[in-house]
Amino acid sequence: VQKNPAEPEFHQAVKEVLESLRVVVEANEEKFRKDALLERLVEPERQFKFRVPWVDDKGQVQVNTGYRVQFNSAIGPYKGGLRLHPSVNLGIIKFLGFEQIFKNSLTGLPIGGGKGGSDFDPKGKSDREVMAFCQSFMTELCKYIGADTDVPAGDIGTGAREIGYMFGQYKRIRGVYEGVLTGKGLSYGGSLARTEATGYGLLYLTKEILKLNGKDIKGMTAAVSGSGNVAIYAIQKAHQLGAKVVTCSDSTGWIYDPEGIDVALLKDIKEVRRARLTEYKKAKPGAEYHEGKGVWSVKVDLALPCATQNELQLEDAKQLVENGCIMVAEGANMPTTMEATEYLQEKGVIFAPGKAANAGGVATSALEMSQNSERLSWSFDEVDEKLQGIMASIANNISDAAKKYGFEGNYVVGANIAGFEKVVDAMNAQGIV
Ligand code: NDP
């Protein structure tokens, strides 16, 4: 805290991981201490912070701050998304980059951990303004990334449009056509099923973990928060697996639709019209629209937070338990506060942490990298099948790791240990670097 003040989200993420690793570290304390393994793990290999000037539609110059944190490359090139949101600061990027190390390790694929972004807000900006920002952002970022060094992707506020503008600028400056970004459009090297991957992966993992606990997702009711990339495809897959999602939300309000969220309508509002959720209520008068927060007050079996960090708090957790919720699976990164997580686990709610539950996105990004290297494109079914296999093996690995250290059913501990073991093994093998 003294070394990195004003980074509460980063401290929260580190604390949560280190608490879980206590048993592993205690078993090899001398080595960890002598080689300063944990100290090296929490210190990014490198971090960049840079000015992003751009001109708005009125001819006025705007200035944002850009970030890229290259956290750990022990098991592969840095990999992690770019967040564009006014709340972005170094502490948020570091928390996301730190989590990414373990998540990427859990996928079983050769990718290190990194994260980046800017405090730019794409909301309410014209396409030209978004392009001007993305070009300026990439003009600086392109010095630090590359297909074999660091491969950014989308995150909050960075979708297909933004990735396209950034890719164009990278190619223009560096003069190479390479898979330097993932989440690209299908016409220029993107992977089928990448758009759906995080939401689909979340449901594949949820289904597997329920199965490990002798339960079937079919017929369950679910609450989803958010209405962006992760939320939309989580809802779609939940419906395909026979569950019913009755809520979604954005930063101003939330929808309760007892008939189940209409995914086609939601996609039209959010992906095509880029409009607010009030439009959902206009199109489906049978649904309810409420201002503010509230999706966790609905009676459901499953809660799938898919918006942002710390959106599910202790009060929400109590409400979910009271309503008989049996499982929480995190589509977003760190959406549940530590107190809420502990409470849910104490009450016997199955809890799947984001670094395992939302790893389908980055796993499919790694598959996009493989396709780019081969200069081939795989079919939707081929990618989706691989994604299902990856999520099933993550479910088994985190369950086994928890069991091995005497924490059966604690998937938070299981995910942290399983992700950590591979990274630390690789760090050890590579010497003091
Ligand atoms: P999007 O920008 O597509 O959607 C984010 C959604 O969350 C929107 O509905 C947004 O509402 C809402 N939201 C964002 N910030 C806030 C906030 N501060 N308060 C309330 N609501 C908010 O992002 P994604 O769906 O891509 O990402 C969602 C989460 O999933 C993030 O935590 C991200 O890091 C994580 N994630 C994403 C992956 C991916 O592949 N996209 C992979 C792994 C994790 P509004 O539109 O009103 O802003």
TrEMBL record:
Residues covered by the Glutamate/phenylalanine/leucine/valine/L-tryptophan dehydrogenase C-terminal domain: 191-431
Keywords, in A-Z order: NAD, Nucleotide-binding, Oxidoreductase
Site features described as Important for catalysis, chain residue numbers: D155
GO biological process: glutamate biosynthetic process
Residues binding NAD(+), per UniProt: T198, N229
Binding site for substrate: K79, Q100, K103, G154, S365
GO molecular function, a single term: glutamate dehydrogenase (NADP+) activity
Domain of life: Bacteria
Pfam families: ELFV_dehydrog, ELFV_dehydrog_N
Record-linked SUPFAM superfamilies: Aminoacid dehydrogenase-like, N-terminal domain, NAD(P)-binding Rossmann-fold domains
Active site, renumbered: K115 (proton donor)
Gene Ontology, cellular component aspect: cytosol
Subunit structure: Homohexamer.
Record family assignment: Belongs to the Glu/Leu/Phe/Val dehydrogenases family.
Protein name, UniProt field: Glutamate dehydrogenase
